[in-house]
Amino acid sequence: MRLTSRARDKKVHREASDAVTWFDREAALCEFQDARLGERFRTLLKQIGGDIGQSIPMVCQDWANTKAAYRFFSNERVSEADILSGHFKSTRERIAAAKGPVLVLHDTTEFTYQRERPDLIGMIKRIPKSNSRRLDGKPQTYTTCGILMHSSLAVTLEGLPLGLSAVKFWTRKKFRGVAALRREVNLTRIPIETKESIRWLENLKQSTELFDKPSQCIHIGDREADIYELFCAAQEVGTHFLVRTCVNRLAGDGDHTVATIMDEVEVKGLHRIEVRDSKGNPDQAVLEIRYRKIRILPPIGNQSRYPALTLTVIHADERGAPKNRKKIEWKLLTDLPVQSRGDAIEKLEWYSLRWKIEVFHKILKSGCRAEDSQLRTAQRLTNLISVFCIVSWRIFWMTMLNRSAPNASPEFALTKAEIQLLDRLVKDKNPTSTQRKTLSHYLIKIARLGGYLARANDPPPGNLIMWRGLSRFIDIATGAKL
């Protein structure tokens, strides 16, 4: 039977829509100075995402594509901002579709390398030499080269990563420890604009711009984010923050500190949580919860520049002395309202999701093997790591999607061709079942390709299993297409 012109057009449009894969969507919105650079980036994202963790020659397969990849990463017209611009816009779309608050997790990680010309990359930190000591008994150290990255990851309250909202790379011409600097200057009197800490403010502002409603955004940070200028910046752009505090600031009229005020606050309730000890065994902890709204003063050297802020301090201290692990002592600071024990527990649960950005960095280093690259300059490495960031997010997203939205339609993450291939490739364990095949059903099939056994009592597949399954599935899909 012949198709009419309209039916033929619909068929072509349907097949074209089905051919749009995740790397097409992430690369489509990128803005490069040359359209050919955008096309090369799309090809590289497809190649690297299809053979995760392999070297550039391995994913490119031939000298022509390998040489083109090296030229792309070393091109002066290509930057990490160009590479990630499309992903940031896709993150914005996913944020707009999310319901309720969105948490933006901030953290810094470092990539270390061994090079004959470390000056082409930059210094990063000092590492003790093994079995080598100076005359004063202290261990001898050597300075390694590398790159630092401060990333911001947007996640839902269920822990689903929506994508990166900001990334900042930088290197150091020389390394000087904080202890050495403190002997020379008072760090609290140095303007934030001249410190590396300015990255926290820059990422906060860039991330907030992705939100239609800045009040929907809550920035989460560890003790490194305990920066007074950051609190003021959040107030200026109309967003919120929840950080773990480590500075005992002046409070009230300046005659008290936060610690002395919180010592007088009574326990408002208890909260039991599940934890694991140092050996990985399950354990329980009972937390004593205290909270209070306090007027907090800026540092003495900046009191003329920044106003006093009224914030809520939350303390969660574990009752008793646990065995085989450290005692839990959380001190959080937020501008969010906390009026009950339930509100305080909610904020503790939100902060507990902060570790997910560390999981993202682990995928970046262990899965994509970002520190195994042999590229020689900081510019080339940052461009490559930017591509790895998109691939790492995809792995993390697929893993968490199986846990946060298992009943969603499979078309939410897979094309029709991929769904049909999985049905033929991985047989159903219960082929006679008439239940609707959900997204989780197909993600489990991908995990089974990576070694997941899918037994009744098995926990959901993790990032490593999903990474292996996705790598194998992409190879098989390529072969099936050919």
UniProtKB/TrEMBL annotation:
Record-linked PANTHER family: TRANSPOSASE, TRANSPOSASE TN5 DIMERISATION DOMAIN-CONTAINING PROTEIN
Organism placement in taxonomy: Bacteria, Pseudomonadati, Pseudomonadota, Alphaproteobacteria, Hyphomicrobiales
Residue ranges constituting the Transposase Tn5-like N-terminal domain according to the UniProt record: 21-78
Domain of life: Bacteria
Protein name in UniProt: Transposase Tn5-like N-terminal domain-containing protein
One Pfam family it belongs to: Tnp_DNA_bind
